[in-house]
């Protein structure tokens, strides 16, 4: 599977070229010479992510294999402040 590398400028100037390249394999898009993004076909991404078509969120959460996934949600900051009870 060929990997194509495009600068951010090349990507912006010819998105169709990037999409054609992504049909053959991942496209690495650089920012100031450093890899920053990857463009690939959605089906390829779903396969790599282990997604199963038609799987609901409830089914995914109930899957015993999901027990091995580390998930630390960020603490919600709702902008509330303590009530002044004086």
From TrEMBL:
InterPro entries on file: Antitoxin_Phd/YefM, YefM-like_sf
Domain of life assignment: Bacteria
Entries under SUPFAM superfamilies matching the protein: YefM-like
Pfam hit, one: PhdYeFM_antitox
Family named by the database record: Belongs to the phD/YefM antitoxin family.
Role, per record: Antitoxin component of a type II toxin-antitoxin (TA) system.
Listed name of the protein: Antitoxin
Lineage per the UniProt record: Bacteria, Pseudomonadati, Pseudomonadota, Alphaproteobacteria, Rhodospirillales
């Amino acid at each position: 599977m060929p990997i194509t590398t495009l600068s951010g400028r090349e990507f912006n100037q010819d998105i169709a070229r990037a999409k054609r390249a992504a049909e053959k394999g991942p496209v690495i898009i650089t920012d100031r010479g450093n890899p920053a993004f990857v463009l690939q076909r959605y089906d390829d991404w779903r396969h790599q992510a282990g997604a199963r078509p038609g799987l609901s969120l409830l089914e995914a959460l109930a899957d015993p294999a999901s027990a091995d996934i580390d998930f630390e949600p960020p603490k919600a900051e709702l902008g509330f402040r303590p009530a002044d009870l004086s």
